[in-house]
Write a structure and sequence with these properties.
It is a single chain. With 86 residues, the chain is α+β, with helices and mostly antiparallel strands. Helix content is 42%, strand content 21%. The protein contains four helices and four strands. It has helices at 13-24, 38-47, 67-75, 79-83; strands at 4-8, 29-33, 56-59, 62-65.
């Protein structure tokens, strides 16, 4: 399984929804809270091609997408491969 990071904020329903999908797939992830840290948010944004919304999900440092994207990828059968799930 790849190393997964999810950038979140404390009050974000999409973050909860994205983490729920990752939990359902038994993906271990590192959660990075950018609520009050502009430096971390800028780092996230730079890695995510300019996206500033949360959540943003990365696998082995590669940007996977936001909440809507990971649900779409899952529906298309592509998410497991991107996250390194067998």
């Amino acid at each position: 399984m790849k190393s997964v990071e999810i950038y979140t904020t404390r009050i974000c329903p999409y973050c909860v929804k994205a983490k729920s999908l990752l939990d359902k797939k038994k993906v271990k992830y590192k959660e990075v809270d950018v609520s009050n840290d502009e430096i971390l948010r800028e780092k996230m944004s730079a890695q995510a091609g300019g996206a500033r919304t949360v959540p943003q999900i990365f696998a082995d440092g590669k940007h996977v997408g936001d909440c809507d994207t990971i649900y779409r990828l899952d529906k298309e059968g592509k998410l497991n491969r991107l996250l390194g799930i067998k």
